[in-house]
Specification:
Low-confidence stretches: none
Strand content: 25-35%
Distance between the termini: 56 Å
Helix content: 25-40%
Radius of gyration: 17 Å
Strand order of the largest sheet: 3-4-2-1-5-6
Number of strands: 11
Order of helices and strands: EEHEEHEEHHEEEHEE
Largest sheet: 6 strands, mixed
């Protein structure tokens, strides 16, 4: 099994067979001669035994990488749980950062580079509170880029409930 090297908030992959697999399956971004995957993607790949992750000193296990993610990103485990659930459902999941969401999601069976995502997913804890203007901004942004806004609520037991929020014109 090939190994990626942890570098800050990314895992760098230079080995060609693994790079090809990652590109084909929609993981990470191509940066020159290497593929860069996020910590969430790396955790998913590690858990599914598709790659190893090394921090320069040792190979990290699932718990090690999870701890690193939790130190770097708020609600990291909840975001991972949603990412894993979406990937396990056969969906292509990419970062949604440029749209102000956690993830953008493509139709089942979509290939990388073909077509556009149709959903934005924002991960929130069960106790999250927001104002109507904040909710309206998120919905307007998603509709302006022709996507559905989905809130993934992760409860204390780790269960995920998805809510699609739309604006209705009467």
């Amino acid at each position: 099994m090939s190994t990626g090297i942890l570098s800050g908030t990314k895992v760098l992959v230079g080995e060609s067979t693994l790079k090809s697999f990652l590109r084909e399956k929609g993981f990470g971004e191509e940066k020159g001669a290497r593929q860069e995957v996020s910590l969430i993607e790396a955790l998913f790949l590690l858990e599914n035994e598709k790659m190893k992750v090394n921090d320069g000193k040792k190979d990290l296990d699932f718990e090690d990488l999870l701890k690193k993610g939790n130190k770097i990103e708020k609600e990291f485990y909840s975001k991972y749980a949603v990412y894993k659930d979406l990937r396990d459902r056969g969906l292509l999941v990419r970062t949604g950062l440029k749209f102000g969401a956690d993830f953008r999601v493509y139709e089942r069976g979509s290939d990388v580079g073909s077509g556009h995502s149709n959903q934005l997913v924002h991960v929130i804890p069960e106790e999250y509170k927001c104002s109507f203007p904040e909710l309206a901004r998120a919905i307007r942004l998603s509709q302006n880029v022709n996507k559905h806004m989905i809130y993934a609520i992760v409860d204390g037991e780790g269960d995920i409930t998805y809510y699609q929020i739309d604006r209705v014109k009467l």
